[in-house]
Structures are given as structure tokens and as C-alpha cells.
Amino acid sequence: MNITIKQAKDYVNQEVTIGAWIANKRSSGKIAFLQLRDGTGFMQGVVVKQEVSEEIFQLAKSLTQETSLFVTGTITEDDRSKFGYEMQISGIEVISESHDYPITPKNHGTEFLMDHRHLWLRSKRQHAVMKIRNEIIRATYEFFNDNGFTKIDPPILTGSAPEGTSELFHTKYFDEDAFLSQSGQLYLEAAAMAHGRVFSFGPTFRAEKSKTRRHLIEFWMIEPEMAFMKHDQSLEVQENYVHHIVKSVLENCKLELDLLERDTSKLEKVATPFPRISYDDAIEFLHKEGFDDIEWGDDFGSPHETAIANHYDKPVFIVNYPTKIKPFYMEPNPENPDTVLCADLIAPEGYGEIIGGSERISDLDLLNKRIAEHGLDPDAYSYYTDLRKYGSVPHSGFGLGLERTVAWLSGVEHVRETAPFPRLLNRLYP
Ligand code: 4AD
Ligand code: MG
């Protein structure tokens, strides 16, 4: 019977075969411990000299890291291992040997590991982070499907730029100029007028010359867009969504969180509602905290966001930023037209902004004015202004950055570990 490591719990005291790789090995004269991994998990295999042929025992002792093989044996319960089960091996069939595997159990530098990202992905820690990423994606589809959203896939090759023109990746589209999408939002607004509630999940690109622990050049974004939705209602959707993914990861990724030594008590505190603080109050708070470098009208940098976030044990919404530091499409705040109906959601523990969202301008004249003020080509946006000509409605939406959310929930310091093959400033390989 061929099974996976994940299935082992259902096969206690039975003889099974597992296709696996050698993650690590320890042996003495009498016994060999093989750390096996098969993609579904990690498990220890035990080879006892007295219980197998001399040939099998010698083979077990000679196995090198990352050799692929079929192991056959009996599954037993083992309270000492975190996983809870191990295999008493009776047979080994090598599939392909591996020699001089570059990533040994000793410590390696970050650049070395990044150069070997295609292999580094096999390590326990990286495996755990990708599983958490996968759980966030699964819970995302679950949340939006359960709440009446239709998934819409906006184009990747585009002619318009929602988030400002300075960070665009240019490419040729036959004889025309095109950009890689920095956000699907404008197309999602069109789709929301057809389907009411929509969301997308896809790659986005920012030619940002930022080399920080929070910035990727290519990252994945979840972007919901909702017709007949005021900004305050959108904040409720956002906090319910974030709460759902945190709860799902806590419930379904226990082994991974444990392996990553994530302090889950901090995640347990993430209950709705999340606090809301206005940009104005945030500025005042920062001044009280001794940040003399920031004035009303400036955008926040990471130290500012972290200072604000550290004041709370849940994610915090900063609402109503100044109009001049936000994109052209945001609805003015009726209580102060120098600000807009928007919010950034700042994660706790210094992980920074994970969501940016707003209510969108629904008035045609105002939108045209903003397009002109921002120096955008009206022809490139005529599809977007059309939405205000034919039955315009108040609508709101937001974008959650997947990798920053993975970093936060996994407790990893840098977003480079949260994408399988991160695109960073100065890194396009592997
Ligand atoms: O705040 P941003 O730029 O918002 C938008 O793109 C909106 N159009 C979304 C919308 O309303 N539909 O980006 C949204 C989120 C940020 O909060 C952050 O989590 C993530 O995307 N993000 C990045 N993640 C990694 N690397 C980068 N360079 C990122 N830039 C933004
Ligand atoms: Mg933002």
C-alpha cells in the first residue's frame, strides 16, 4: 500500500510504502534514523540493524541528504516526535541518489539561500511558510465565496495605472506601450457594476526601488470590490475577512506555526472589531511619541506605522488620509475635503500595512477633474469614466497584500520567505 506521510496516522501498525526524500540522517552501529519528507510532511524512519538484512542496514547508513527513495515499513505511534508517528523500516528502494546537496543542516547566509531558492523550498521552515500561504489562499476563496462574491480575473497587461505612474513596469504590446498591472482595481470596479460583489486574486507588479523587509517587485493581491457599499461598511468586510484568515491559519496550521515558533497568543487576540484611528489623530499620536520628523500631509514610513501598531494588540485602521498623498480615484471625505474616505490596515508586531482600500469617486465630473489633475490620459481611462455615466453607484473596495499577510501570520521577518520565488530589487534568479 502506497501512502503519504500525512496519511500515516490512519495506518498505525500496518505495513505501507512511502515515496520520500532524505531530509537528514543520524546513525550509529546499531540503528539509523532517517528524517523523511514527502511534501505532505516530515517523519522519522527507524532502521534497526538486528531487524533488517545487513544489506538494507548498510544502505540506510550510506543514504545521503535529498536522495529519493521508497521506504517500506510499519507505522507506529511515537509520542516523542512532534508529528506523533514514525516508521519502523523494513525495506528501502533508492530511486535517485543525491550528492553534495548544497543546503546542509548547518547555517547558511541569506544570499546563498536565495541563490538556491529552488532547493531551499524543501526545508522545513520554508515548507511551513508555504503551507500557511496556501491556507490563507484557501480561506480567502472560502470567505468570498461564502459572502456572495464572484471571482473576476482582471488583465495583467494593461494600458492604465491605478496607483500612480512612477512605479510601472513598461513593456511592448506589439506597437503599443503597455504596463504590467499594479492593481486590478479599475477593472474590478467595472465588474462590480456587472456582478455587485467581486474579488480577484492575482499577481501585481511595482517597479519600486525599495529594498525593505516589506517590499516585493512582484506580489499577489486579493482585491474585493463592492457596489452599493460605503466606506464604513467596507471596513467591516475587511476586518471580518482578516479575522477569518487568522482563525483559519490558527485552526489548520498548528504544526506549521509550532515549527516556526510563532507566538500564537498574539494571533488569538485578533478579534473584531479592529480599532479605527484617523490620520489626524495618528499624526498627533506620533508627535506625542516624539516623532518630530512628520507633519500633516506626509505619508507614514515604517517606523511611524510600527509605533502606531505597537499601541494595539490587533490590526488597526488608519482612516481618512490627506487627498494629496493618495491615488486619484478616492472619494472625498464630506467632513473634510482635504482628506479622502480611505483606510490602511496596519498589522500588529511591525508587519506594516497589509490592506489599502477606499470608497471610489462615483461622480463623473469630479472623476474627470482628478484624472486631469493627476496628468493622466483621459482616453486610457474612458472605460473607467463610463462607469460613472451609466448608473453610477457608491462603491468601495480594497487590496490585501498576500505576502505581507503571510509574513505576519508566520512570524517571518522578511517577505522574501513568503513567496516561492520572490522577485526583489536585484533578484530575478532563480
Ligand atoms: O495600498 P495599495 O497600493 O492599494 C492598491 O493597489 C489598491 N488599488 C487596492 C484596492 O483598493 N483594490 O496596495 C494594497 C496592498 C498593500 O496594503 C500591501 O499589503 C500590498 O498591497 N503591497 C505590497 N506588498 C509587497 N510588496 C510591495 N511592493 C507592495 N505594495 C503594496
Ligand atoms: Mg497602500
Automatic annotation (TrEMBL):
Q: Where in the cell is it found?
A: Cytoplasm
One GO biological process term is: asparaginyl-tRNA aminoacylation
Keyword match Zinc? no
Top-level EC class, please?
ligase
> What are the protein's UniProt keywords?
Aminoacyl-tRNA synthetase, ATP-binding, Cytoplasm, Ligase, Nucleotide-binding, Protein biosynthesis
In short, the EC number is 6.1.1.22
A GO cellular component annotation in the UniProt record: cytoplasm
The keyword DNA repair belongs to this UniProt entry's keyword annotation: no
Output the superkingdom of the source species: Bacteria
GO terms of molecular function: asparagine-tRNA ligase activity; ATP binding; catalytic activity, acting on a protein; nucleic acid binding; transferase activity
Coiled coil, from the record: none
Q: Which InterPro entries match?
A: Aa-tRNA-synt_II, aa-tRNA-synth_II, aa-tRNA-synth_II/BPL/LPL, Asn-tRNA-ligase, Asp/Asn-tRNA-synth_IIb, NA-bd_OB-fold, NA-bd_OB_tRNA
Among the Pfam families in the record, one is tRNA-synt_2
Catalyzed reactions: tRNA(Asn) + L-asparagine + ATP = L-asparaginyl-tRNA(Asn) + AMP + diphosphate + H(+)
- Ranges of residues in domain Aminoacyl-transfer RNA synthetases class-II family profile: 130-430
Q: Which family does it belong to?
A: Belongs to the class-II aminoacyl-tRNA synthetase family.
Complexes and interactors: Homodimer.
**Name this polypeptide is given:** Asparagine--tRNA ligase
Source organism per entry reads Mammaliicoccus stepanovicii
Please name the taxonomic classification of the source.
Answer: Bacteria, Bacillati, Bacillota, Bacilli, Bacillales
